[in-house]
Amino acid sequence: MLAFLDDPKVLHGIYALGALTLFFIGLYGLLAKRHLLKMLISIAVMELSVYLLFIGLATSPGETAPILSDGLTAFTDMADPVPQALTLTAIVIGLAVLGLGVSLAIQYHRLTGKVDVASMTELKEL
Amino acid sequence: MSWMLRLLFLAVSLSPAALLMAWDADLSWPLIEGVRLSLTLTPLAGFFLVLLALVAPLIALPMLRRPSDVPSLVLFVLLLIGMQLLLLAGDFVSFFIGWEVMTWSSYLLLLRSPRTDMVTSQSYILFNLASAFLLLAGILVFYSVTGDFLIRAATEVSRPQALSLVVLFGLAFLIKAGTLPLHIWIPRSYDQAPDLFSAFLSGSISKMGVYGLILLLTLFPDALTGFAGRFLNGPAVGYLLAWVGVITSIVATFKAISQEDMKRLLAYSSIAQVGYITTAIGVGSSLALAGALYLALVHTLVKVLLFISVAGIVLQTGQRRFNDLGRLIERMPISFFGVLIGIIGLAGMPPLPGFAAKYLVFVSLVDARWLLLLAAMILASTAAFIYCYKLVYAPFLGHANSPEAREAREAPWPYLVPQVILMGLLVLFGLFPGLAIDVLIDPVLVGLQMAPIGSESWAKLSTAYGGYDGVVLMLVFGTAFALVTGLFLLLRGRMRRAGSPHDLSFAGEVPTAETPLHYGAGMGRELRRIPLVGWILRQGTQGFYLGLAGQMRAAAALLGTLYVGRPQTWILIAVVVFALSLAVQAMMGGL
Amino acid sequence: MTLPLTPVWFVALPLLLAFASPLWVRLRLLMPLLVGTPAALLLLAFVLLPEVRTAPLLETIVIAPPLGIHLQLDSASWILVALISFAGLLTNAFIWLADGEPYLRDRRAFVFLLLLIAGCNGMVLTGDLFNLYVFLEIAGVSAYALSALRRDASALEAGLKYLIIGSVAAVFFLFSVVLVYLQTGQLNLAAIAVGFGEIPGPMQILIGLLMLVGLGIKAELFPFNFWVPDIYQGSHPAVAGLYSGLLVKVFLFVLFHLVFLLLADPKVVGIWLMGLGAATMLIAEVVALRQEDLRRMLAYSSLGQIGLITLALGFGVEATTAGGLFHMVNHTLVKLLLFLTAAVLLRSFVSAQLADLAGAGRARPLAAALFVLGALAVMGLPPLSGFASKLWILKGFAEAGVFWPVALILLAALIEAGYYFRWIKVLYDPSVQLQAVHPVGRLAYAPMAVAAGLIILLGVAPFLVDALFSEGAQALLDRGATLTAVLGAGS
């Protein structure tokens, strides 16, 4: 019944839709929520959607993970390894940024007691 | 150390003179790819270099008085270097570099005065930079037309190109010269600048605008006649320029009369004089250019002399307003003679060379048959007598109106030496009106490929419309002066002092100690009651420029609201712009 | 074993030193090492210069094909690399010599500075789109951290704001990288350039716009630059000087590098970018008129100059491009000088507000004089270096007979004069007697004097370096040569 999912076009379409939905959810959170941590999480969600898009669209149904193990000795029907490697790198970077952001937010909260991005008014136009 | 520094400064101030003597080759200096600065000395630049060479050491000398202001000295040196570069420029890039160095160093010098306020300094720098940037725009248009930056006659220029060039260059130089709607920076800055620097501003820097205007004539040999043909006996475009000059002189003259402050009066007088020069350049004939150059020479000498005398008065009394001065003739006799000679030159009265200069301009106007202009110019130069009289009467004659004026002493010698030298020069040129023609002006005219004026002898000024003999004139006037003075001194012993000035009473009112009793007091107030003159005096362009500044501030406030400190707004704008441009592209390209 | 002198050191050396520094905390040599690294990089740049001028240096470190790090050092990127090292050196020297705020003289600050330098060098040198993203994030993270280093409310606020907007930019950029890879299957810039034309048009536009938003935010182009003044105001002026002097230049360079490399015909995009540049320039200059905070004013002025450089580079003619590159260098020198002056003034008088700095010219004559010099140079007044580069740009426009940018540039310069001279006038206000609160070491002026000296030298004798910029412009504009150099003659 779900055989139509084996069609790469359909599957890629679903991935793309899902990733875009996730992207817009992240964007919504970023624009609508004023809590610093929520904003940072929203950014992370946006990043995540891009990773998902990357991995999803670079892989077609039937391809295996690009790892030689469990008796696999030759690269047949293997997914393109580059997106996966790149996504791993990007995840690490994203994590670092998120970590820095959260730590800054916590320090800011400790110092001023504020968590609202709209209340950050130390620096502004006259 | 300090002595070394002073000597060095004096040496630098003599550099224009040295340059004039020693210049024999052309120099060049690469700047960037395709741009090479080349320095050369043309006769026209040589004339203005002579003016600079005369003025620079005369102003440098009093600047050295202790306590010396080292930044001022450094800036003055930079200013001199910039002006020499400007005059020696053989290409427009060097010209512009010199122009800009002159602009910013003079601005920084202006700031050395404690009286300079924000409006003055901002209007000075903004007008001058606007002039500089118009010049640069003109230079770039010129470059795109001719393919290089060399200053030379532009041939093969199409009409719109020539028009844009003339407008850009013309506006740039008119701002610097300070003709009417663009003059607003002059009175304020001449007034508030350091007293000696005002002399340099009026004497030398304003002449650079004149230099530029004459240079513009050399760029387009037929600029004046080529555009719109001839009007009466002169060029039609020049007619417009001449009216700009004359209107400038008339308005500035009346403004000058109504001033209560010596330096401000001189500033307006300076605008008026440069207005005459502009008129003469507008006429554009060989006679007129000779007149323009002669006027430039006389105006430089006279204004430097007057500003230094005034600087001496301000130094000794701390007062600048006519109402606070008076009776200084006994305390500052040399300064008195300085101002006296100065105003005779300024008013263009015989026997001093101001007369020769104005005579040439008048004759050129007659030659062009622009008689309406001639009448207007005579009106302006006659009205100028009033402020000239005020300038010598109010500080030196009458009654001393402040304690400082009562106790003043003669200005120190570094102020007096330049005055004496300048008086000597003025008398010399008065005796020999042909000298300036022969030595200074004719070479320029020949260099511009115009007919020289020529003179039979140095004592004579001769034109096709007649001339005069300077020695004879000087002898007549000198004799008359000696006779009158002698008679006065002889009879003076018999006169008795009437009494205290406060014995005087008029119309039943008894003047108090505060009532200014000198002749020029309240002259401006009375002038405003004359119908046309009053209307002219009430008009001003200041409101327009202030409005412009206000509009800019409003625009800044409006655009500043874009830069709100909210990250979510930044992101929203970015996303919206992204989506919009995507949509636009989709509609245009049919995604 | 001798270490070959290759471009990889520009990235590797600062990275290695930065990451290894926690191991050597006890070493007395550590701090001078951290401070001096940019000097070593600058030296390396000059050693490599003769080689670079003959042919671009290419280096590929293969991890596993097709994964590898491609570095490319040509005449254009050499200018940026040398500039980065020099700016880093000046800033490090200033922080080290000024004996100022302890949080800036800390090991951490220098580590972040080195990371920033490594990231910038990497972005300029890399020939690989994904590495570009990685280096962008390295530079970004170190910049966020540097902004927040002071850890008071305003610094943390600046750091957080910077982090949020910077991450958004990075997400947009990453999105475009992903799309490019999905479309072409390549990450090497030259290989992408070959295949880019075959991507369907709408997708090209989408990729282009995503990149524009991502890099536009980072490169401070209107309408993506609203964050700039806040961040510059909250950060330490020396750090803000690096942002304005170095980070933005790198992003601009990357933006135009991509435009000129990927697009066979960059004209249309160039015109759009010129429009953005003009808007950036004019709006920033106008808004700067009403700024009362020195750091904010400098931020807007920096935006204005960025707009000018964008205008020049977007035109894509050799003269304007060379002038634009030269102007990048000049603006870096000038803004470093101005921001370091701001640092001195801020430290001396504890405020960067216009009203509090009235009369500072007499309390700190040297700093004020350097400010005047910098202001004159930034407005492009001769004989300072800003004039030479501006003339070059204007000359390029005049040669092409295009005059609207000339008019806008001159108008912007006039507006710029409106506020710089206002500040100068206030600094020399004679009616106020201002007393300095904190002393500033004499040595702090040394890096500023170096910058000032270079500004004057490059203004009086720009012919010393103009060939470099011409070659740089050729390298940047000559797409074919780059492609041949990277992919071989066959492609």
TrEMBL record, chain A:
What membrane topology does this protein have? Multi-pass membrane protein
Which Gene3D superfamilies does the UniProt record give? Answer: 1.10.287.3510
Sequence intervals crossing the membrane: 12-32, 39-59, 85-106
Source organism, top-level taxon:
Bacteria
Specify the taxonomic lineage. Answer: Bacteria, Pseudomonadati, Pseudomonadota, Gammaproteobacteria, Chromatiales
Membrane as a keyword?
A: yes
Q: Does the keyword Cell membrane apply?
A: yes
Cellular component terms (Gene Ontology): plasma membrane
Specify the protein name. Sodium:proton antiporter
Q: Where in the cell is it found?
A: Cell membrane
For this UniProt record, the keywords arranged alphabetically read as follows: Cell membrane, Membrane, Transmembrane, Transmembrane helix
**Hey, which family's this protein in?**
Belongs to the CPA3 antiporters (TC 2.A.63) subunit C family.
InterPro entries, alphabetized: CPA3_antiporter_subunitC (IPR050601), NUOK/Mnh_C1-like (IPR039428)
From TrEMBL, chain B:
| Molecular-function annotations in GO | NADH dehydrogenase (ubiquinone) activity; oxidoreductase activity
Entry membrane topology? Multi-pass membrane protein
UniProt keyword Transmembrane helix present: yes
> Where is this protein localized, as stated in its record?
Cell membrane; Membrane
TM region(s), chain numbering: 38-61, 73-89, 95-111, 123-143, 163-184, 196-220, 240-258, 265-287, 293-315, 336-356, 368-392, 413-437, 471-491, 570-588
Q: Name one Pfam family in it.
A: Proton_antipo_M
Q: Name one GO biological process term.
A: ATP synthesis coupled electron transport
What keywords tag this UniProt record? Cell membrane, Membrane, Oxidoreductase, Transmembrane, Transmembrane helix
* One cellular component term from this protein's GO annotations in UniProt: plasma membrane
Annotated ranges, domain NADH:quinone oxidoreductase/Mrp antiporter transmembrane: 89-380
InterPro entries per record: ComplexI-like_HydComp (IPR052175), NADH_UbQ_OxRdtase (IPR003918), ND/Mrp_TM (IPR001750)
This protein's name: Sodium:proton antiporter
Q: Which organism is it from?
A: Thiorhodococcus mannitoliphagus
Mind giving the lineage of the organism this protein is from? Bacteria, Pseudomonadati, Pseudomonadota, Gammaproteobacteria, Chromatiales
From TrEMBL, chain C:
Q: Where in the cell is it found?
A: Cell membrane; Membrane
A single GO BP = ATP synthesis coupled electron transport
For this protein, the record's InterPro entries field holds: CPA3_Na-H_Antiporter_D, NADH_UbQ_OxRdtase, ND/Mrp_TM
Provide a GO CC annotation, any one. Answer: plasma membrane
Membrane-spanning intervals of the chain: 30-49, 79-97, 109-126, 132-150, 162-183, 203-228, 240-263, 269-290, 297-316, 336-354, 366-382, 402-422, 443-465
Q: Which key words are in the record?
A: Cell membrane, Membrane, Transmembrane, Transmembrane helix
| Domain NADH:quinone oxidoreductase/Mrp antiporter transmembrane intervals | 127-414
Claim: Transmembrane helix is one of the keywords in the record: yes
One GO molecular-function entry: NADH dehydrogenase (ubiquinone) activity
Tell me the Pfam families matching this sequence. Proton_antipo_M
Q: Topology with regard to the membrane?
A: Multi-pass membrane protein
Q: Which family does it belong to?
A: Belongs to the CPA3 antiporters (TC 2.A.63) subunit D family.
The protein's name in its UniProt record: Sodium:proton antiporter
